[in-house]
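Re: the pair you flagged

First of the two:
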Amino acid sequence: MPKRSSSGYLSVPSKKRRRLAGDFAAFNPEYDVANSQAPATDSIINATSVSTRPPQRRRAATPSLASLASKRFAFYFSTLLGSEENQRHAAQYLRILPDTILARLVDDLKKYRPTFMSNGFISAYFLRPPSVALDSTLTGVNKHTITGIQRAGSQLTSLSLRGFDKFSDATFASIFPSLPCLETLVLKGCTKVGERTVGAITKSCHQLRVVNLNHTTPTAASLGRLLVSCKKLEVFKIAAVPKIASDLPNRFLIYDDWRLFQTPQFLASLARSEPGIVSTCLTSLKLRYIATPDLPLISLLGHFPALRRLDASFTKVTSLSPSRFLEHPIRPLSLPDLEKLNLTAIPLKPGSAGLVHFVANFPSLRTLSIGGIGGQENPTILRDRDLALLTSRLSGESSNAWPPVRVPLENVNLAGNSRLEGPALQYFVRKLGRYCRELNLASLKGVTSDTLEGLLPQPDTPPPHARIASENDAYPEEWDDNTSCLEHLNLASTSVDDGAVPFISSCRRLRSLNISKTKISSEITAPRLCLV
């Protein structure tokens, strides 16, 4: 037992006392900034100093017992069901398994043993309401499995069938008359789903809130009837539906023809209903890869006043000028207040100035993707003057309000616009880019190290929107309102070099950084960008 000192406390070894020698925070001339003898390698910590903090180590969440048991059962599925006694024992518990755990077990079986489940096994245990989810990785699914879903009846509220391209349109259509309470429906990749199936859905499933028909083959007329009949529909995805190409302008866009405004039928309908309003509940619309020539996007938006998220990337939108349909003197329709807008690779006509005015109509916009404007044929449509004008409008500098009110952008994608150069990009980064959480500037040769100077703290320009710190944030006590909000930055295939490192390092919230195919050397990246 160690000897006690006269004060009654345990004595501390002399070695430790030597380590603690000297007063806490005592003056040290070696690190005195004003001292002319200070080492030349020392630098004042300021806005441009490079962060050398070690990366935060995140602890993986401990899986629950139910998750571990589900994975174990799925991994040893073939062994557990090797004998009849084991099958009876497993069947007894599978029938009483809670719905939440059953859904997790289905996902684990898809991952570890997708080829071991037969039609009988799936039909007996996994076609239970309120949710059924199957995909083409389950080789035991056949026509009888699909038609057996109708036995769930009115208790089924969620149905997901993905990638089944071998079953006919009639097979899918036969199950929906028995499912009147469906709220979520996903038929993505079921390429033979067509007009007959969508017609059955239209007649029977009026409670739908989410519909995903990506990569299916219904007609535009059947989709229009589905939108009108499902009054509660909130999410509608029809990406890569080929039959819309020639049918959409004449069938899907009700009242879009200017001549309809002059007919007695239209004037009589003004007293009965709101013409042109297809859905007042739709908040998300996905039209990706729709090949309709000259898609009238603005007229389409007038049909959905509650729309918040629109994906029209890789479509044939050639003009974004105001539509005559929206400017009609009798009852014009206004554009919805979008929060997400994806216009990647739309083939706007050269000299079209409608993009800037169109995007500026959405004061609540948070996600904007305008990469590769002009498409593969002409990717040089978006130029410096367009980006500068767009930045001025979205940052609020073009208005007379003071202080300027910025659009609360969080995610911006400008990748692939090859005509954008230094001054306009630098202005964009300083006024908008530094306040985003995600910024994609990939394949922009005009992005240099000087472009990123706007990422440095700017005391006179606080962020346009408040950011709530989460428990996963690293070093939140060191942050202030002047620090860039960037968390994900993509600079792949740009012209940045080692001079950009101080600017990037000032982004303390940065979590991921892509600098592939740039001029930044690995010797600089490893020790100085350790935060990422």
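Second of the two:
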Amino acid sequence: MATDSTNFVLRWIYIDGNILKTQLDGVIYDKPVAKHFKLNIGMKYADLCDVLFSKLKINRDKYGLKLKYRCKNPDDLKFGIIPIDDDEDVELMFGVVVSKGNPLFVELYVEKLLIGTGKNLTKNPHVGVGVTFENNFVERVGESSYSRCLEVDAIVESRASSEKSSFQSSSSSKMLVSIDDSILKSGDDVMIPMELRKGMLFKSKKELARVESGCNWMLKARKRSVHNHFEIMETSGAHTCMNTTITQDHSNLKSMDIAEAIRAQILVDPNIKEKVLLATAEDVFGYHPNRKKISNAKNLVIEDVHGSWEGSYRELPHLMEALQLFNVGTKVDWDFKENEMREVMTFKRVFWAFKPCIDVFEHCMPIILIDGTHHYGPYPGVLLSAMAVDGFSHILPLAFAIVEAENLSSWGWFMDRVRKFVAGRRHGICIISDRHAGIMAVMQRTGWCEPLDHHRFCIRHLATNFVNAHRKRGLKKDLVKLASQVQPKKFELLWNQLVLIEPRTIEWFEDKALEKWSLAHDGGKRFGIMIINHAESWNNAIIDARNLPITSLVRSLFEKVVDYFDARRVEIATQSLNGGIFTKFATMKLRRAIARASGHQVKLFDRDTWLFQVTTKKDGLKGGNNHIIRIHEYTCTCGKW
């Protein structure tokens, strides 16, 4: 989506939630984004409040607003909170946004205050009751947005610590319980509580549910704002259950329990089949849970390790920002979907290409292999990828995109950015792909069409389509052999044989130009690469990551790219120490060509133009053919050069 960053910014609005501190990110919000809309740069504090009252439908006669925004510290890349109280604060906020250079994702936190009480409606004691930001403090640190962010954070932390100490001193009779505490006794299959009583505290609802599972004893508990833990408020009498096994009742075997049993398997292989997990659950619990419980348990483990799917999409912009910050020159582009009122914008697509990959492509063959693979999960999409082939004949990942589906629009959007950010003004590039309708249409557009660039078909996909259309044995092998011939006369011989086997061949190939699939008619554009196996090998390498939330998928791709460059560095260093001039792949091709040419006879015809005649080695009925080689034109009538 193209925006003019000098006029407005896209604002993410959070409300009716809590600001939480984390060791990894600094501060986060515990509720999803409530609204997306645009704010004009240069607006005043009163204008900002008017917009928020209107967009969030807040009764201004009943509530006031407390505004804060999240700002990243460039030293540790953690977030802090900065309050907004007047026009100067609004101006400072927009100044921070413009200085970042990427104004698409600016987060504004809105707290509702009851008029006349000053009471905050959020529940988190760290940022709610009793936490204010003095005006004299704002004026004192106004010259530095980042230092202000950190000092404000320090005040919040100090007051939170004070409140925590106060709570502990006045509530010493409370017992904070963890799943690892000695109050739990280990049974055969579950951890069994010896006694649960009113007033016990648990860090999370998950821990409380884990402790009380396995029996029909009931309790009531709720999360209290005074200590931010779950507290047992009421019980149905004393709890001294000594059961050591789960019954055969459906309700007693929970996804949470299954998740603990299958956790290790999922960590090793996130793509593990559910039937394997089902067998594990049967072995552990002696019961056959339904597939839904297995699926839910698997999702619980994935979310515990990689975060939630919804949270992953919220964190994606921050991850991309970090990748660009630490890999200067990395290209990222976004596409958003607007609602009918053009107020709410949701994620649609994202493209990224790492700077080292862009730079290396200049030294690779002018070949780009493109392919798409599914991204699974609650929010399915498609991962589009563009690959090059380096001098080692290894795949070089060039660019990626997460899109909604494979279609003309998504492929066009992706290839436009490959041209803009990766290929640039370099032409003579050959795109090799399957015959997806979206790709076929995009390759006819200005920017990738002949004569500046070229499009060729993957012969394996073409042969599969051919076999599916005619349903005869051996056709796939015959077509691959036909397409791989480099000499026109051998191509004609095999073509006639194929037509005899399947007469409908001529009709099927009527709309498929020879240069698109025949190596003998290719003109050297595809450098002998007939299939997109390189791209599909990459898809197989990331098959586990395709089942993970989107940020984990991006991290996995980044780590694969890092591994690629590290492996090439080791390979180059090893070959250099051994006196190698060319890559191992190139050296093997040269040696093979020299061995095959050892019996050829060469005759010079024109020294000025370097025109030669080569008579190939006679081997039974093969060989003894004459070919003309023009060194300056890099051609040979054999078709192999």
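The first strand starts at residue 8 and ends at 15.

-B.
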